[in-house]
Design goal:
- By secondary structure, the protein is of the alpha/beta class.
- The protein is about 60% helix and about 5% strand.
- The chain contains 21 helices and seven strands.
- The protein is elongated, with a radius of gyration of 25 Å.
Length: about 500
């Protein structure tokens, strides 16, 4: 038993390290996008200012923001450093999947599940996202490991640890609260309800009560999710492709065929118990959160987003590994099926790490790369609006505040830190036009040029309509020209442009 435990730990450490390294590859390339800038905007504030904003919005991300504040204090807020915690969390989650697979079946099942987890496009996406989605997957899988350990040992200390990690998981990402009924069903299906039911109930209630202040505050801030679209006829595709296989439809097809074969084929006698163990744990883990979010979206208000269910990816990986073992008996066959999944995930892995891979092709980092060597102390800067940007082009400066050090921000109104908002106020051009005579150089950050209307579909089931846009048609351009400025330099990016005006 001791030898088996040692081997299990070694496997988990190996996959954790491998997963972290693979997940971190290319994370420095994509430009920051809107959601990630929310992380930077809040986490780079003082602790008092951070607490102020959490009292108004985004309390559901509070633990993540606080953690990232200290992380940024140590390692800075570059694209790589901001995403590294997510890459590390993917590795930690993969190690947990290995342990869980070995406890549910065998060493081979655990290792295979860990590899499948690292191949899932939703997981490779979460590794390049400076948000709490990858950490939520890590929390979910280790919470489930603790459930199995506590059920097996029955010792109070393990139930206490389970309660503590449950509370931590819910505080980290609110929707992991759905694991409570999922775990209840798993305990019942595994036949542990009679012997461990009361112990589990006590631990679950303790964990939930500990996290309840955040849950209540999150409901008080429910209005901030009003942008989420209602469920419609696109739901099957959201579930089938975007939820776990975002950007990789052929991977989704292959995985669906694999799961179908794994269900249809009668596995070997030694594999059948493993499949049952996986299904009793993984199926509730997948279905219960989907039903809860979907049901709430139908009867109350929309909260269902594909990325919010990232914490169910370990369960998907376990089922995928069990299916591979059911349909591929020989080692070479297992290697062949796994190799095919590797090939199918490569295109999405590469695409997720391209320069403008995030929603709408947001290019905040790219703009900063361009102007970093061109902005000079004393230059005036103005930020316009954009059809694709929920806030304003001021988020360019949020991406890398140091780029704009020494410049004169004419349009800055009330600051987010003081007001407890996510974003600084951007004053309209008319309110700052009178200050233009004090400037010799003005940099204007604007929406990109579009000769025709563009429509962009997001996996969040949103259509963004971008009307035609010419900067020369705008009041801002006319105002700058009337103030005696002429266009000296202009650079188009993907969805933005930077324009330098001089007298």
């Amino acid at each position: 038993m001791a030898h088996r435990t040692t081997v299990c730990a070694q496997d988990a450490v190996l996959i954790t390290l491998l997963g972290s390294i693979v997940a971190a590859v290319g994370t420095w390339r994509p430009s920051f996008w809107y959601d990630e800038l929310a992380t930077l905007s809040v986490s780079l504030r003082s602790r008092a200012d951070l607490d102020r904003v959490l009292g108004n919005v985004d309390v559901v991300h509070g633990l993540y923001y606080v953690s990232m504040r200290y992380w940024f204090g140590l390692f800075g807020a570059s694209e790589f450093s901001a995403r590294l915690p997510s890459a590390l969390a993917v590795g930690v989650a993969a190690g947990g999947v290995v342990v869980l697979g070995q406890r549910l079946g065998s060493r081979r099942l655990g290792l295979l599940a860990g590899v499948v987890f690292l191949l899932l496009p939703r997981v490779t996406w979460a590794a390049v996202e400076a948000r709490s989605y990858a950490p939520s997957a890590a929390a979910a899988v280790w919470l489930t490991v603790l459930l199995l350990v506590a059920c097996r040992s029955g010792r109070l200390r393990w139930w206490a640890v389970y309660a503590a990690v449950l509370a931590l998981s819910v505080v980290l990402f609110l929707y992991t609260v759905a694991l409570i009924p999922a775990h209840l069903i798993a305990v019942a299906l595994r036949g542990d309800l009679r012997g461990r039911g009361l112990a589990w109930l006590g631990a679950a209630l303790t964990g939930f009560v500990a996290a309840s202040p955040l849950v209540l505050e999150a409901f008080a801030q429910a209005g901030q999710t009003s942008w989420i679209p209602p469920l419609d006829r696109n739901l099957p595709r959201i579930i089938w492709e975007y939820q776990w296989f975002v950007g990789a439809p052929w991977f989704a097809v292959a995985f669906t065929v694999l799961i179908t074969g794994g269900v249809a084929v009668r596995p070997e006698a030694k594999v059948a118990p493993q499949r049952r163990g996986v299904l009793t744990t993984a199926v509730p883990w997948i279905l219960v959160p989907m039903v809860m979010l979907g049901g709430y979206s139908l009867v109350a208000s929309p909260v269902y987003l594909d990325r919010y269910l990232t914490f169910t990816t370990p369960a998907v990986a376990l089922i995928g590994a069990a299916a591979i073992m059911a349909v591929a008996v020989r080692t070479w066959a297992i290697a062949g099926v796994t190799g095919a999944l590797v090939l199918l995930t490569v295109p999405s892995f590469v695409e997720q790490r391209s320069e403008w891979s995030d929603p709408s092709g947001m290019d905040f980092s790219t703009v900063n790369d361009y102007v970093a060597g061109r902005l000079e102390p004393g230059d005036c800067v103005l930020f316009g609006g954009a059809a694709w940007n929920p806030a304003s082009q001021r988020l360019v400066s949020t991406a890398r505040p140091e780029t704009f050090a020494g410049t004169r921000d004419l349009g800055l109104g009330r600051t987010a830190a003081v007001e407890g908002w996510l974003w600084d106020e951007n004053l309209p051009f008319q309110a700052v036009a009178g200050r233009l005579p004090t400037c010799e150089v003005v940099w204007f950050f604007a929406d990109a040029e579009r000769m025709t209307e563009q429509r962009i579909y997001h996996t969040s089931n949103q259509w963004w309509t971008l009307p035609p846009h010419r900067f020369e048609w705008t009041p801002e351009y006319a105002g700058l020209v009337n103030a005696g400025f002429r266009m000296d330099e202009r650079q188009q990016f993907n969805v933005s442009q930077a324009i330098r005006f001089v007298r």
